[in-house]
């Protein structure tokens, strides 16, 4: 799940939804931080209880006609991307996002809040302890976004780096290679302050996944240029 992508579903849903995201982001940039309360309400969105009950008893054809589908995930994503458009200008959103990420009843709602936290960059520094907790979450994309969030903040290496190294050890056993790649990328954001990770990184140089090897090639020299040179690792141009 590297980058800014949030799981949207089928390809046709993505094609329909992404342009609206870009329009929303542009609008939020014009409005500024006054939009934060509204955007947080969007991130808090839940499926309608009434719609959920009706879906359980009505045939699918009636559900479609009455528009009873659950669009709460789409609403949450518009809120998250709106906050992302504000970036480091949205520190006021951090406490609420931590609360949503901790207590939203839907797994997707908790994930979207963590995603939003990582898009705020250094504004999310107060969330570092929470993001460290998320590294052991049972949901892979929550763990992954928490790791990327710590890297994006890039501060408090005395606690962030050891936590990311522990996550790196876990990620090497994960069936999802994106966790390992993003753990490497997150550590690289700390530069030489992440040298304690070098022994593990060197042990991964022959990893079977080419994406993991590419990440190592690009990021090991940032963390420890000397160790990379000794291992024959040259950063790709």
Question: What's the structural blueprint in terms of helices and strands?
Answer:
Blueprint: H1 11-31, H2 36-43, H3 49-57, H4 60-65, H5 72-86, H6 94-103, H7 107-119, H8 128-134, H9 140-153, H10 157-171, H11 177-188, H12 198-203, H13 210-223, H14 225-230
Helix pairs in contact: 1-5, 2-5, 5-7, 6-7, 7-9, 8-9, 9-11, 10-11, 11-13
> How many helix segments?
14
Question: What is the makeup of the main sheet?
Answer: none
- Percent of residues in β-strands: under 5%
Overall mean confidence score, pLDDT: 87
The radius of gyration over CA amounts to 20 Å
Strand tally, please? 0
Helix content: 55-70%
Overall shape: globular
Structural class: mainly alpha
- What separation lies between the terminal Cα atoms? 23 Å
Task: Spell the H/E element sequence.
Answer: HHHHHHHHHHHHHH
What ranges have pLDDT less than 50 throughout 5 or more consecutive residues? 7-17
From the structure provided, what is the oligomeric state, counting identical versus distinct chains? single chain
């Amino acid at each position: 799940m590297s980058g800014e992508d949030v799981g949207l579903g089928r390809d046709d849903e993505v094609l329909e939804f992404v342009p609206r995201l870009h329009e929303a982001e542009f609008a939020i940039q014009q409005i500024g931080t006054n939009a934060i309360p509204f955007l947080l309400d969007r991130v808090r969105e839940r499926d309608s209880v009434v719609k959920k009950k009706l879906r359980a008893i009505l045939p699918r054809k009636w559900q479609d006609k009455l528009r009873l589908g659950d669009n709460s995930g789409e609403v949450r994503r518009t809120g998250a991307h709106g906050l992302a458009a504000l970036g480091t200008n949205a520190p006021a959103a951090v406490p609420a996002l931590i609360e949503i990420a901790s207590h939203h009843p839907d797994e997707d709602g908790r994930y979207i809040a963590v995603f939003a936290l990582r898009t705020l960059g250094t504004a999310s520094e107060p969330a570092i302890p929470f993001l460290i907790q998320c590294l052991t979450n049972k949901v892979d994309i929550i763990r992954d976004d928490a790791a990327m969030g710590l890297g994006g903040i890039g501060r408090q290496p005395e606690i962030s780096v050891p936590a990311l190294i522990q996550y790196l050890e876990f990620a090497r056993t994960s069936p999802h290679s994106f966790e390992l790649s993003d753990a490497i990328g997150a550590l690289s954001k700390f530069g030489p302050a992440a040298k304690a990770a070098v022994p593990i990184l060197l042990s991964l140089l022959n990893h079977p996944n080419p994406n993991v090897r590419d990440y190592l090639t690009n990021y090991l020299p940032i963390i420890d240029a000397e160790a990379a040179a000794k291992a024959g690792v040259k950063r790709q141009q």
